[in-house]
Amino acid sequence: MIKAVIFDMYETLITQFESPLYYGTQMAEDVGLTPEVFLPSWRRTEVDRGTGKMTFEQSIELVLNEHNLYSDELYHKIVEKRIAIQADCFHHLHEEIISMLSELKTKGMKIGLISNCFSEEAKLIHESALYPFFDVVCLSYEEGIMKPEKEIFYRCMSRLGVQPEECLYVGDGGSQELETARGLGMQAVQAVWYRCEEGEGRMAAIRSEFQQVEGPLEIVRKLC
Known about the structure:
This protein has helices at about 25-30, 35-45, 45-50, 55-65, 70-90, 95-105, 120-125, 140-145, 150-160, 175-185, 215-224, and strands spanning about 5, 110-115, 135-140, 165-170, 185-190, 210-215. By secondary structure, the protein is an alpha/beta fold. The protein has a six-stranded parallel beta sheet, sandwiched between helices.
């Protein structure tokens, strides 16, 4: 019997592709470097950013100094732009997301969140309208561990007080999350409601070995 639903955040509960993109390639343009020069420096900070060893702000300062480009003006421009764009993602929810979470709570389901994220994203998740729906939140930035490592899944289940066979895991399929969830004994389904033709190449591939769910409210119906 399913007692808990554990969600991924990005491309499952919210999407980043309805907002302007602001990742390494766009930052490179703002600092006046080619992606070939900027991205290696930026990507070297990714694991530290994702596991709480470095904030987004610290990583920007480090990379700008590495290329002798640091100025307060440029630093603040990048930080403020990134935070504003990431915050905008929460304004483009699929129309059924809130209804789904509300109905799951009404049915007495425990709701967990496991998300890989950086410092600026963690803060926005805590401040979002989605946050009150979660009984347990495991963010890589705060836990010091990232998907697909099993430990972050175990921590979420332990805090929810459930066993793997009592969990439904819902994610877009990135970071090998579905494979880990199934390997631990959870039911795992792939959320595809944010997929579109234009953004398809930027999203996780369809995992044919998992069931695809076309709309958020199908999660509720699946548990009835």
